[in-house]
Write a structure and sequence with these properties.
The chain is an all-alpha fold. It contains 17 helices and 2 strands. The protein is 29% helix and 1% strand. The chain binds heme C (HEC) (10 copies).
């Protein structure tokens, strides 16, 4: 694996060959690329070396018959853009024994010799070339379930992807390559084409890295968040355009601060953590525990009173007048939480209840949450 340190990040590929951690199994491959890089040095950008240990637990794909697989160099002639972009990613530099495990293009596209030899033999004959194209796994034509399975062959044990097949995304036909691109070649990255044009866009612009940097530094995503998610979630984009919102459109927060795009079995709506816990990692002060809890916070959850995507009301409340928010639950009907202050026209019941009940998320002093 090319953990070569900061000095190597933007240099040519052959710096991997100088690295002490370099795996000798990769030498033939790297030599091939060295030649390539001398031809076009400006394309030598690499994924950065992560500062923390890998978040991805994975296993190699065993290679029972080595002769079914070719070196990526054999593809360059015909698939030069894919070949060049692939070489910049961590996938091109896995430190595993080549004889035993699949590396190169075949780790995602499956056995690639048959296709390659058929294409080479078919050159000039359109019908034969089209037939040869069917001899290899294509993510473009595969169904999303099969496409994801090709990634999950390795990305099995990582914390999030292991629940991918249970996610709303998988169940609705969203595959890994709906959000990630392994080659960047196909990604049409033009924010102006994405979703509806909200007025907001004229006021805020999310600082964006150049496309390839964004791709290499940010999980090989087709587009940066939130545009990536807005493509399909136009209603959520509309919520974030409301006056009070978490600053996601401004680029200061991401959808993935609250959600996991990959799926989870512990929380509804693909939240990182169940219910109110997803919020209190940042809003520690409202999380408690308190001596006197307001049951609403932990039972209904924050979304009982707030719309975290955005709202026309201050504090992102779900209702404009706070008292109506309270009176949703404090109805006074038999068996339900009381309205304690008598008829609706009393002093207490006009105006906001939070004039007095200021410790609305819970109190350490007062069971009635007045301080
Ligand atoms: C002689 C030229 C040639 C070589 C060499 C070659 N391919 Fe292809 N490949 C093609 C053509 C032509 C197509 C069909 C047109 C297209 O979709 O780009 C194709 C299609 C593909 C597809 C997509 C199939 C589809 O239907 O969309 C994949 C994946 C692929 N090749 C992978 C590889 C890999 C991996 C290698 C090297 C091990 C390789 N190819 C070597 C010519 C070649
Ligand atoms: C990590 C997995 C992975 C590896 C390794 C990989 N690819 Fe791909 N490839 C994909 C995915 C996913 C797509 C679908 C489009 C995208 O994500 O950009 C794709 C798309 C393609 C396509 C376009 C046709 C299609 O299937 O949509 C070609 C051609 C291709 N790859 C060739 C190659 C070649 C050549 C190599 C090796 C140099 C390679 N791939 C290595 C995952 C991979
Ligand atoms: C042969 C095993 C294997 C296959 C197949 C595979 N990956 Fe990976 N992938 C890895 C390894 C190993 C890493 C690096 C883990 C690390 O060191 O952080 C990785 C890293 C990644 C990363 C993180 C890159 C980064 O920025 O650090 C993404 C995203 C990713 N893979 C997506 C995919 C997708 C999507 C597919 C299917 C198209 C796929 N992988 C197929 C083994 C694989
Ligand atoms: C709905 C969009 C979406 C789908 C579908 C998706 N991902 Fe991701 N993935 C993301 C986003 C967004 C990030 C970056 C997360 C962050 O910045 O916190 C990411 C990060 C990753 C990472 C990097 C590090 C990590 O924390 O694990 C890997 C590896 C990865 N995805 C693999 C996959 C695989 C494999 C699949 C298919 C099984 C997949 N992803 C499906 C959006 C998606
Ligand atoms: C501050 C945390 C937070 C952020 C940031 C956030 N969400 Fe949510 N999201 C939630 C919560 C909490 C729910 C559950 C709402 C409920 O239970 O009614 C939710 C629900 C959803 C749902 C399902 C319910 C629905 O309203 O359709 C989607 C889809 C969704 N979010 C997408 C997104 C997207 C896309 C982004 C980024 C543009 C995003 N979220 C950013 C907290 C957040
Ligand atoms: C290719 C389209 C697509 C992309 C891109 C996409 N989603 Fe989704 N997402 C869907 C579909 C389809 C559903 C299921 C229907 C629904 O709940 O709206 C869904 C559902 C969800 C849900 C709701 C889960 C639930 O159980 O209610 C959340 C949360 C979500 N997506 C977050 C995200 C985030 C965050 C991103 C960006 C990292 C993203 N999505 C990118 C298509 C997409
Ligand atoms: C990643 C950290 C983070 C998470 C997670 C988060 N928030 Fe926030 N929240 C913030 C920040 C930062 C602000 C200040 C916002 C601003 O001014 O843009 C904020 C503001 C708010 C406000 C408005 C406060 C005010 O003074 O106007 C409310 C209400 C709120 N968040 C509720 C929630 C809820 C509910 C959740 C869980 C669904 C949540 N937050 C999750 C960081 C977070
Ligand atoms: C019973 C309704 C209710 C619930 C449940 C609730 N809030 Fe609030 N929250 C309010 C009201 C009302 C305000 C406005 C207070 C005011 O007017 O001074 C508020 C204000 C806030 C503020 C900004 C002011 C402050 O006190 O810091 C944040 C942040 C916040 N809530 C976060 C959360 C989080 C996180 C949760 C879940 C753990 C949550 N709220 C659950 C009603 C609620
Ligand atoms: C989602 C429902 C819900 C909402 C909305 C709600 N509450 Fe509550 N509240 C409760 C429940 C449940 C209890 C616990 C009642 C009990 O123990 O009898 C409670 C308890 C209280 C108590 C303490 C009373 C006691 O007997 O312990 C006060 C004060 C209170 N709420 C005020 C408010 C105010 C003010 C608002 C509006 C900002 C509000 N509540 C919104 C459900 C809610
Ligand atoms: C002028 C200040 C004030 C306002 C406004 C006010 N309250 Fe209270 N509330 C109190 C005080 C003081 C107590 C504790 C003494 C009592 O029971 O009267 C209390 C008690 C309560 C209790 C607990 C009752 C019990 O029997 O334990 C609930 C529930 C409550 N208020 C809900 C509300 C709701 C809902 C609103 C808005 C419609 C509201 N309050 C408006 C001052 C206020």
């Amino acid at each position: 694996m090319s953990r070569t340190g900061a000095a190597c990040r933007h240099r040519f590929n052959f710096c991997h060959a100088l690295s002490p951690t370099f795996s000798f199994a990769l030498i033939p491959f790297s030599l091939g690329i060295t030649i390539l890089v001398t031809v076009s040095p400006c394309r030598a950008q690499k994924q950065p070396t992560p500062s923390s240990p890998p978040s991805v637990a994975w296993k190699g794909i065993p290679k029972p018959s080595p002769k079914d697989y070719l070196s990526p160099d054999r593809c360059e002639d015909c698939h030069r853009p894919e070949y060049l972009e692939f070489d910049k990613t961590v996938h091109a530099h896995l430190a595993i024994p080549k004889q035993k495990y699949v590396t190169g293009c075949g780790m995602c596209h499956g056995p690639d010799r048959v296709h390659t030899e058929a294409e080479e033999a078919a050159r000039g004959n359109d019908a034969k070339m089209a037939a040869a194209a069917k001899l290899i796994f294509s993510f473009r034509t595969a169904n999303p379930h099969d496409a994801a399975a090709h990634c999950l062959a390795c990305h099995t044990t990582s914390e999030h992807q292991q629940f991918f097949s249970e996610s709303a995304h998988a169940l609705h036909g969203v595959a890994c390559n709906s959000c990630h691109t392994m080659h960047l070649v196909e990604a049409a990255v033009n924010p102006e084409q994405v979703g509806l044009a909200f007025t907001q866009a004229e006021y805020y612009s999310v600082p964006q890295l150049p496309v390839e940097n964004q791709w290499l530094h940010d999980g090989m995503l087709k587009q940066a968040q939130p545009e990536l998610c807005y493509q399909c979630h136009a209603t959520i984009q509309a919520n974030f355009a409301l006056p009070f919102h978490h600053r996601v459109p401004e680029g200061l927060m991401k959808c993935t601060d609250c959600h996991t795009p990959h799926g989870t079995i512990t929380a509804a709506h693909q939240l990182n953590q169940p219910n109110w816990q997803a919020c209190v990692k940042c809003h520690i002060e409202v999380g408690g525990p308190f001596v006197y809890e307001h049951a609403a916070v932990k039972i209904a959850g924050c979304v009982g009173c707030h719309n975290p995507h955005g709202s026309v009301n201050h504090f992102m409340l779900v209702r404009r007048e706070t008292r109506f928010l309270c009176l949703q639950c404090h109805t006074g009907f038999h068996g339900q939480t009381r309205v304690p202050h008598g008829p609706a026209t009393t002093f207490e019941n006009e105006g906001d209840c939070t004039r007095c009940h200021i410790a609305i998320h819970g109190s350490n002093f007062d069971p009635d949450l007045v301080h």
